[in-house]
Amino acid sequence: MTKTLSKCCRPSRSHQPICYDITMKTKSGKSLHPIGIGTWGISSESSGKDNKYKGVVAVKGNEQSEIESLRYSLGKGQNHIDCAELYGAFYTDEVVGRVLEGFKRDDLFIADKLWKTSVARDHVRPTVEKMLSKLGTDYLDMLYIHAPWDDAPWVEAIPQIDQLIDEGVVRHFAVSNFTLKDMKTAQEIAAHPVAANQMNYNVLHQSEVNEPFKDFCAQHDIKIVPYQPIKRGEVFENEVITEIARRHNVSASQIALAWLLQQDMLPIPKAVNKKHIDDNILAVDVELTDEDLSQLAEL
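Above: the chain's sequence. Below: its structure in token form.
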């Protein structure tokens, strides 16, 4: 995924149309809004406090409110939706499928992630078919391997993903939580390029995405997709971030997102509150100074 000079217009705070030139384009030419939509926690929750990567179960009863919020996001121009079979054990995919009804599929960029139980030989295709059925689509724009587990044969998934890309069922191959070493291993096996790496990266958690990591991704055109990009509760308590926000007359969460956008990354915050959705989208207006960036780099 690369940056393009194509411009996308939308209302500013003064309600006058403004344009920005940070729209992302995939290698297949699809334009992406610079801020994606995360779905972790949509109709799901972890059944264990000590490990977010297992015991995730569906939570039913609040779907209509979540659907309305996600449809509001799409109506605002956000079109990159990130899902995972882990989230609610496919139930989040089902809810997102209801969200997508009535929207033009070609305008959307739908990503999903394989969990460890679905990476072994002959397991990827049936899992993807289930994703497609739940989401109500006949292809995925991007398919991730959710993590480089030590106890699951994730390398076996790669040839299977290559085959699905050859067939047009999947458009892009991506990885998540992969170290530099893991990315190199994936590249050696894959017939198709690694398009993205989804990482836990934000202004308050910078250690996993260091300069060598960023340089490798830039060299190989691997888009870094930060999850948990805001840490909304924490950024509003950080004096450095709140002071920078005060200087720009914006929110602390907008500073956190702008910091990622100015690194040419594609953050995917989860938001089911319309005020938070609007706040997130306005982050594309924020231009941090060199002084701001220097202060934030030291957090």
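The CA atoms of residues 239 and 245 lie 10 Å apart.
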